[in-house]
Structure formats: structure tokens, C-alpha cells
Amino acid sequence: QVQLVESGGGLVQPGGSLRLSCAASGFTFSDSYMTWIRQAPGKGLEWLSMISGPGSVMYGADSVKGRFTISRDNAKNSLFLQMTSLRAEDTAVYFCARVKAAAAISWWFDSWGQGVLVTVSS
Amino acid sequence: SYVLTQPPSVSVAPGEPARITCGGKKIGTASVHWYQQKPGQAPVLVIYSDSDRPSGIHERFSGSNSGNTATLSISRVEVGDEADYYCQVWDSRSDHVVFGGGTKLTVL
Q: By the 8 A CB rule, do A48 and A60 touch?
């Protein structure tokens, strides 16, 4: 079965950096778009970024453009999110998810990791 | 940017039907997906492509989409359905994923 396990979260000071990882198993990772989504405490879901199977196509939210970078290592079945210039408002649980698509005009997320908490505070 | 509007809360008695709406300009021309999230858990896909159910999702969950409103319907609501529900679309104009603000379903 599909399994996604995030890691790399924790406490970081404002202005700092953090790299999240998502280990995937149970499916052909290199064939799948993947995405990062976050949820601030008590708030709704916020999409961050998405990457194609080969890693050649990426989409990203304006709110984190220039600060967050999505990448992947298909040899290691791993997805990453490099976060820089972190702010208090980046405090959230970060989820990775597998993307499913219909004719490249509709995308949804059929499997999610359990999430990892990132806290930005001095 | 495209905006999806959901009611913050919906309350329903056990055994009654529940409807959660998701409003957006001409949303009927998009494909809408729905997620259920229980406290402390990751979201779970319950409806995709307006009205399709993933395997393992009970047939009590259904979806529709037309005009400016998409709707998630739950027939015969159970206590275990109490959760936050989010709608989601792909905005092809901006190449962005958009989530609704979420609706808390309370089973009285």
C-alpha cells in the first residue's frame, strides 16, 4: 500500500532554514507527481508546491515563491522541501501527498503522509 | 486568484443528510475534489472529479458540481463523519491548487 513518511521538522529560529523529506513506498514513485501542503495551527489547508515525476515541471504558490524549493530523488524514492528565510507564519504541519491527475487539467491528492510539525520561533 | 468559499460550519443530527457547499465563479467548469480531516489526522480524499469515490469510501458520500456551486453530500450522517471537510480545484489560469477554507461538520 502507498506509504508516505515526512521527516525533518522541528524548531527553527526566524530567518533560518530547514529541509523536509518525504519517504515514499508502495507505488512507482518516479511516475507520480508529488506535492507539499501545509496547515497552520487551527487553520485550513494551504498548497505550497508540486513537482512532476521526472522533476522537470514544478508549480508553486506565490506565498512561498523564492523561499521554498521542491525537489525529488527518484533513486531514493524521496521528496524534499527546502525552506529558507523562515518566518513565524510558516509555523505549520507540513504534509506530502501523491498527486493524481485527469488529462493534466485536474489534479487531486489521493494519499497523504501523517505530517511533520515545523515551528518557527526564537 | 481563484477563491473557493465554504460555510465555516454545518450541523446535522445522526441519520439525517448533510450537504456542504463550495462556491466559486463558474466552478461547474472545473473538477472539484473533497477531503475529510479528523482532528490530529491527515486529510483523506473522499470525492474526486466532482462525484467519483475512491475505493474504501462509503457510498453515503457523493458529490455534485454545477454553475457556481459544488456540493458534498453525506446521506444518513454518522457520528464518525464529524470532521473538517475541504474542497479543492486546480486553477488552470494561475497553475495553482486552490483549497476552500474548510467546513466543520458537527453531528449533534
A: yes
Nearest to A109 among B41, B45, B101 (CB): B45
Helix (H) or strand (E) holding A70, with range, is: strand A68-73
Q: Which residues of A touch B98 (CB under 8 A)?
A: 47
User: Tens place of pLDDT for every residue, chain B, 108 residues?
Assistant: 899 999 999 999 999 999 999 999 999 999 999 999 999 999 999 999 999 999 999 999 999 999 999 999 999 999 999 999 999 999 999 999 999 999 999 999
Q: Measured between alpha carbons, how far is A19 from A17 in angstroms, rounded to an integer?
A: 7
Of A45, A61, A112, the CB nearest to B96: A61
How far apart, in whole angstroms, are the C-alpha atoms of residue A5 and residue B104?
27
Residue corresponding to grid cell 455534485: B64
